[in-house]
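[Q] Does anyone have a clean structure-token version of this?
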Amino acid sequence: MSGATSSPRLSEAPSTEIQPLQECEVIARVNSEVILACELEWQVRLLFEQKLGPVASQQMLNSPMYAEAREGLLKSLILGRIEMALLYADFRSKAPQADMSAIKKQLETPFEETEVPRLVESIGVKDRAELEAKLLSLGTSLSERREDFFRTIIARQWLQQAVKINKEVTHEQLVEFYQSHEADYAQPVRVRWEELMVRFENHPSKSEAYAALAQLGNQAYAAATAAPAGEAAFGELARQHSEGYTAADGGVYDWTAQGSLASATIEAALFDSPVAQMSPIIEGPTGFHIVRVFERNEAGPTPFSEVQAKIREDLYKERFDRAINEKVTELKRSARIWTKFTGDLTFDQLAELNENMRH
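[A] Here you go.
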């Protein structure tokens, strides 16, 4: 990457006129880190190509309209880079003896396995060779994308290492978290059910398929009448004669939430009928069905015992996210941040810009 040209002083006031940006001009400083126009230019060109097409976007490159739109995009992209630059600068200042060669070697595999496929998909090319050619046409290269990936991952990992949280979670804390987030663990009506099915394709006609299931249904009715409450009844009948997806498992379907089935008719039979009652024969797209619910959980909070492990994970994540935000806020409050478009940025001004960008 070529070196930066003009390097404005941190105290320089932002211009009110649109000034042409040099190819690799310094457009932002975050403590010891600089952000160059050429580091972001390829993304600007890509956005224009994706919106206007390669030919039209190329024709716009020297137009005043492009210059103005480019600066608007660069302002947005800078805001997205400030946090990464801030974290990377913190890493470099507090871990000056870090073996960068070893760190980058460890990140080669993640780059090849995750970032290269992501770039192929997001840029809209077929393979790595097309990706390399496309990046060059946009004014960057795969090696530059690799270095940028390394810096980003190092910054993220540094942040995670810098954050210290209490990992101990007591039973009382779990219960308190559960009670304060009860709606998050609510569940819809759920049923466990069983099915007998015959497929149209396995019988000479629909009428014969219907007759085959009716005969099965007579046997199923006797089995269901004798089955203990809360237990499946179709077992051997389903394994021997049913043609449904779960026939080998006795026709049993595990907990199924209301609204999750493709067939409205079968769903109505499951959620509108009493537990243990067999449905009449139901015609579906591919065959006839008899269904029977043998267990139902009504809508409401999931029992604490069933979500205790997830609550522990959620509580830890909430603590971690809060600690991350506090650490980033602390770094931003003490940072020296300047951009070509704003001049020096205070913490409050940066927060306002980020809020405006979200809206």
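[Q] Thanks! Anything notable?
[A] The first strand starts at residue 26 and ends at 30.
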